[in-house]
Amino acid sequence: MTSDRITINPTQMNGQPYRRKFRLTVRRVLAVLGLDPDRAELHCDYRP
Predict the structure, then answer these.
(1) CA dihedral sign, ordered 4, 38, 36, 44
(2) N or C: which end of the chain has fewer CB within 10 A?
(3) What's the predicted TM-score (pTM) here?
(4) What are the structural domain ranges in the chain?
């Protein structure tokens, strides 16, 4: 599976995979989803 939205760059975000344009690490997105599964509310909170 490939994604054009997830980026891994050793010089950015400490080398962790992150969501392009949002500058959120994949780890952070998964942690927030685990705490609050209401995606509509999360989308409003993290809208660019």
Answers:
(1) positive
(2) N
(3) 0.62
(4) 6-45
